[in-house]
Amino acid sequence: MLEPKSPAPGRSALGKPEASDEQRALAWAHTARFLTTASQLDQLPVTDLPEIAFVGRSNAGKSTAINRLAQQNRLAFASRTPGRTQHINLFEVGPRDKPNALLADLPGYGYAAVERGAKLRWQQVMADYLELRRSLTGIVLMVDSRLGFTELDLQLLRFISPRITNGVVRLLVLLTKADKLNRSQGAAALRNGNVVLAEAATGESDIGISLFSALKRDGVGGAATVLHRWAGLSGRSATSKDQMASRSPHDSNL
Ligand code: GDP
């Protein structure tokens, strides 16, 4: 008697190719849509959904990275419309009738042209958000790969470090615009980044770092996979560290 054949590896019983973790994560990220905007913490919806915040110096490539992750050209540029630049912009992800995560785009810091009073007020809102937002599950910090961590990035790291070291909030650092670096410069940027992040690493922490190029699409699938896992949507027990940092810097699947 013939045994029922098991599907070929990578194929479902129906013969269709199975989506990889990365494809599932990208399809999920693609569902992102604008939800609301807030200039103060108490204007944000109270939610049980896991929330992932995107932070970085202005011009680090944050908007471009969010758009690339969501595979939408204009999503994060909603944050650019006049009046919204100093707001937290929230995006919903997952099925329309049952969203399963929120993305929070925080304004870029360090923009010299912002008037001092507004800057101080805004810094306080951002600090309150990062310190107090209960649903905050993960932070994606965008750092220009050519500059590495600037003093402002280090200040931010020190500020979030209590919630990172105890593992309540996870951290993924994306070294952006990596297409501007050659192979050895990319490897050096990763090494330097790892040295800085080692200070926050504990047995409980979940910290990852990766080269990222929105232009070349390097690191996009890997980053989407980490966010998908943070949202509790993939059963992987691997940490961001295992998924990202141990790969070779120029692995195009990253
Ligand atoms: P934000 O202020 O952090 O939101 O930065 P933007 O996303 O607006 O990007 C700032 C500048 O960097 C823009 O001119 C982008 O075109 C450029 N940029 C962003 N991502 C990349 C990238 O992956 N590669 C290159 N070469 N340029 C990028």
In short:
This protein is an alpha/beta fold. It is built from 7 helices and 7 strands; from the N terminus they run H-E-E-H-E-E-H-E-H-E-H-E-H-H. Guanosine-5'-diphosphate is lined by residues 56, 58-64, 108, 176-177, 179-180, 213-215.
Description:
The chain has a 7-stranded mixed beta sheet with strand order 1-3-4-2-5-6-7, sandwiched between helices. It has 7 helices and 7 strands, in the order H-E-E-H-E-E-H-E-H-E-H-E-H-H. A hairpin with a 7-residue loop joins strand 3 (88-93) and strand 4 (101-105). By secondary structure, the protein is an alpha/beta fold. The structure holds guanosine-5'-diphosphate. Residues 56, 58-64, 108, 176-177, 179-180, 213-215 line the site of guanosine-5'-diphosphate (GDP).
Radius of gyration: 19 Å
Q: Which series of helices and strands comes N to C?
A: HEEHEEHEHEHEHH
The best one-word shape is globular
Strand order of the largest sheet: 1-3-4-2-5-6-7
Ligand roster: guanosine-5'-diphosphate
Q: What is the count of β-strands?
A: 7
Question: Roughly how many Å apart are the termini?
Answer: 45 Å
In the predicted model, the low-confidence regions spanning at least 5 consecutive residues are 1-7, 245-254
Helix and strand arrangement:
Layout: H1 21-29, E1 33-38, E2 51-56, H2 62-70, E3 88-93, E4 101-105, H3 116-132, E5 136-144, H4 151-165, E6 170-176, H5 183-198, E7 207-211, H6 220-230, H7 240-245
Parallel strand pairs: 2-4, 2-5, 5-6, 6-7
Antiparallel strand pairs: 1-3, 3-4
Helix pairs in contact: 1-6
